[in-house]
Amino acid sequence: MAHDIAQLRDLLESQIKEVTTPESLQKIEAEFLGRTGHISNLISQIKNIAPENKRAYGENINQLKNYIRETLLAKGSTISSNNKTPLDLTIPGIRPQSGRLHPTTITINRLNYFFRYYGFSVTDGNEIVTNRINFELLNLPPDHPARDLQDSLYIEEPNILLRTHTSSVEVETMIKEKPPIRVVVPGRCFRNETANSTNGAVFYQYEGLYVDENVTMGNLKWILEKFAKFVYGDKIKTRFRAKYYPQVEPGAGFDVLCTFCGGEGCSVCKYRGYIELIGCGMVHPNALKKCGVDNLKYSGFAFGMGLDRIVMTTFNIPDIRVLYNGDLCLS
Ligand SMILES: [Zn+2]
């Protein structure tokens, strides 16, 4: 027994001399004090010791164990002081991650800045709306495809749903306020869409409404052309096309030359050369009337745009899903 203990001391001392790294020290610790190490081995021999010698045997093991611990500890502190890197104040610091605004927020702020300059105020409305606010008062007939139960996300069919466009806020504003009304509405909208690179179930629209005496299509064209130049620069080419929307009469589509291909045709503009940016027109007299506005005295224009498309074209982001993804490495 005594021989075993003496042998182990020698073994430890010879091994510890060679140690230069924390890893090799850990290896020795496991070899001596680990679950299947030398000490455990000695303890497992206790059953073979004569009863009168058991006490002395146990004490010897404890002494050895303490000796091993102290030796390992002493060696450990020598290694760590040898391995300490000297303090170097010239090493550059680690740059902390700084936050910044989301491209959608930056775009909303820019657009608000533009429209505020021309006398519009920024407003927001409810995201959960009634069928009446979202469809009926906007002159959308019951058989309009947008009213299909499959295309909208209903909270309670058939009357309460998530707004499918920010035009619902036009209605809420016309009901609440008297003309002159000049508002823009940035906001989230919801449709039952399968997500792909250009569509999502959640998306942003940016809507505008101007109701006053003598508002004409000329006013609408003027502000939208100014707007396109503000967003894409003075050289941007634009065009108006006649287009049908039930809530306006006449209705128009406002397009800008594709910023990705310069009009040559690409997958972003679906090989048309132009990107449809805004749906607009003169507010339908029926919609004015339904919202309590005197349609003989007042007229108005309204426009709405997919904000995500503006964000994508100005930040050169080819996939809409990047805007709604929490992965910071993608954006
Ligand atoms: Zn294109």
Automatic annotation (TrEMBL):
Single GO molecular function: phenylalanine-tRNA ligase activity
Protein name per Swiss-Prot or TrEMBL: phenylalanine--tRNA ligase
Native species: candidate division WWE3 bacterium CG08_land_8_20_14_0_20_40_13
UniProt EC number: 6.1.1.20
Pfam families documented for this protein: Phe_tRNA-synt_N, tRNA-synt_2d
Catalytic activity: tRNA(Phe) + L-phenylalanine + ATP = L-phenylalanyl-tRNA(Phe) + AMP + diphosphate + H(+)
PANTHER family (UniProt xref): PHENYLALANINE--TRNA LIGASE, MITOCHONDRIAL (PTHR11538:SF41), PHENYLALANYL-TRNA SYNTHETASE (PTHR11538)
Residue intervals of the Aminoacyl-transfer RNA synthetases class-II family profile domain: 62-325
DNA repair as UniProt keyword: no
Keywords assigned: Aminoacyl-tRNA synthetase, ATP-binding, Ligase, Nucleotide-binding, Protein biosynthesis
